[in-house]
Write a structure and sequence with these properties.
homodimer, about 200 residues, alpha+beta, four-stranded antiparallel beta sheet, about 10% helix
Chain lengths: ~200, ~200
């Protein structure tokens, strides 16, 4: 466990992973959404794209063994294992300060968009844009009419996903600071989460 | 009808619309998908965002009377009228040359991503990125398990949507050149479409 790194509650972290390495993301306390991004190391303008992944797989999200695709239609991260029920979201934008304003906040609120930038900044990098994130452990049920719900996670403490990097990548993670909607559990208490880069 | 402008088959066009003006997009021959974008005129980095719209409305797509939101969470285009059955897609990326390569093309294929750039270029502008488009008239049914299908349109000749601009915007349209999948009809024959800016 020496390699396990903390994504502090309400914060962002980033790390490099080489092609072939595994990336484990752990829902340590069981109710924390982790917004996740992957950028190609050689050119950050290539990144994991939810809309390109849906189009290539013709599915809302990959099943175990399938890749996420980049905006240049290349496999960038393959979903290798998932100990959770597999409920992850590809539909919702990263939260941002504008979002919390609409939810009634009158002062700055931590948010995943800024956490992406802060995580990359620690590595000396700047995101070229804010791609629509892979919202790990986030439960957004849809219905036949297209209705969507911000619901509580269906995960348990210690649930994890394991990816294999298909390219040299920069990964970024945000322990989502949403404490108004129940997306991080009915207690609305964001927690830390963890990740590990494995050979 | 003097103001009706052509989006040539397989091509892109762009135009300015002031706040309060209406933008009509016509499916002239009834089976043509029109990838549609809107950028804020004062700063192209603000644009109509499918992932922010879904999150704000908690619905896959707006109903008549509701807005699409920008990536800064502001209403940017309101859906005012829709003569079609209301089947439009917000899930799929714009096609690109990489996509056609995966579909077996060995030479360059016209595509909506390049059509966005070409349309804006005619106005002296460059898109800051390729936002996930509003795919007007595109029929992507989803199922309870998350399966998605590239299906033929359910529209008829002359069906149109009418938007009101909530900001001064630059609109861009691509008459999607997809001729391999049946997204532009079982005949796989992309056609021109039309648009009009109305006071």
């Amino acid at each position: 466990m020496s390699g396990l790194r903390t994504i502090p509650a309400r914060s962002g972290k980033a790390a490099f992973a080489r092609k072939g390495q595994k990336v484990k993301v752990v829902n340590t306390y069981g109710e924390q959404v982790v917004d996740t991004w992957a950028f190609a190391r050689h050119d950050l303008r290539e990144f994991m794209s939810m809309e390109h992944t849906r189009a290539t797989l013709t599915r809302m999200r990959p099943e175990v063994g399938e890749p996420f695709y980049s905006n240049r239609r290349r496999p960038i991260l393959t979903l290798v294992e998932d100990s959770s029920p597999g409920v992850h979201d590809t539909l919702m934008a990263a939260c941002d300060n504008y979002r919390y304003g609409l939810l009634g906040c009158t002062e700055y609120h931590d948010n995943c968009t800024d956490n992406l930038a802060a995580g990359l900044y620690e590595l000396g990098l700047t995101p070229p844009e804010t791609p629509s994130p892979l919202n790990l452990f986030m439960n957004i049920p849809w219905d036949a009419e297209g209705g969507l719900v911000f619901a509580a996670p269906v995960t348990k403490p210690g649930d994890y996903v394991l990816f294999e990097a298909n390219l040299n990548v920069v990964m970024a993670f945000s322990a989502c600071p949403q404490d108004i909607l129940p997306i991080n559990g009915e207690g609305r208490a964001p927690t830390e989460a963890h990740f590990e880069i494995l050979d």
